[in-house]
Predict the structure.
Amino acid sequence: MLQLFYKKLAGCLLLLGGIFLLNACGSQPNNNNSNTQDTTSAGMAQADTEKLPLSKLRLPEGFEISIYAEGIEEARSMALSPKGTLFVGNRRKDKVYALVDTNQDYRADKVYVIASGLNMPNGVAFKDGSLYVAEVNRILRFDDIENRLDNPPTPVVVYDQYPTDKHHGWKFIAFGPDGKLYVPVGAPCNICERLDNPFYASITRMDPDGNNVEVFASGVRNTVGFTWHPENKEMWFTDNGRDMLGDDIPPCELNHAPKAGMHFGYPYCHGGDLPDPEFGSKRKCEEFTAPAQKLGPHVAPLGIRFYTGNMFPKSYKNQLIFAEHGSWNRNKKIGYRLCIAELEGDKVVSYKPFIDGWLDNDSQEVWGRPVDVQLLPDGSMLVSDDYADVIYRITYKG
Ligand SMILES: [Ca+2]
Ligand SMILES: [Ca+2]
């Protein structure tokens, strides 16, 4: 009832009109008419490729990496429309971009700023002509967006009752095979037990119109990437382990959530078998679902997709490719790479690097940090980088 009241109130406020709302809420996106950057320039592209040391990247034999788009400030999560428009969000910045490859040479030619002034708009998803954007506490929807890239509409507020905590408040979002929008809510802390709101440390889901919001999975500290198996439609997600327990524990996690209602351990148990020093005495590790694969400590796993294309070798088919954004809470850096987890049935049988070299292990210098991965219809793969401000494209030539 209360929710309905707020929705009605929001509707009335919208009727009161633009300027008042801008001042009252202070978080309405600013649309403007000069929201395009033209990036058509072969010379510029070449110069940029030279600026980034792509040759330092180690790829499996036969693979190549190039720049799909550059100058995309803090490029985070990605969503691709069926027509090929690539939407890209921000975490610490405030914008959402749309990238269009007008001449289909696999390099973006136009970059549109769809919205600015948003509150950590990390998450983007596309469905039925509309772009969905996740801010910290709400979901926005930009209708008919591909016909309005030059002059984006004022978004519809789909839902605005998520917690407002900025700590782990940025969200990855995606539509599941059931047509529902999946929205995680991170723990508002490094480690804490917040039973006051079941949304904390969970993955929720809702109808596309914002109705029927429910918790899908609990005990998830901070997932910033999930996807569904192409055949059995079961969810897989990455989760970032807690900090401040030293360099080597706990592991970050790759988890498997075949059904609703599962609990993945946080804040009581990490990695399936490591009780938390503060909260571990409250509940036992055996009560929870252990990760399908322990990942490296502090590697910060983010975007994840099954490789469903036909360009890469057959051994990649239906295997998980995910980004490790890289550690900060560790003396010697690790992560800063793309990994592949090979599955046999529901079991992960290997976890190994796919592409690395953004981190120089000896000097500990970093020049890029992969965030999200996105397949293109030709089977090539895009990778966003919020440190180098680019989108890469990975191809296999054999
Ligand atoms: Ca192009
Ligand atoms: Ca866990």
Q: What stands out?
A: The first helix runs from residue 2 to 16. Confidence is low (pLDDT under 50) at residues 1-33, 40-47. Helices lie at 2-16, 18-25, 42-51. The CA atoms of residues 71 and 389 lie 5 Å apart.
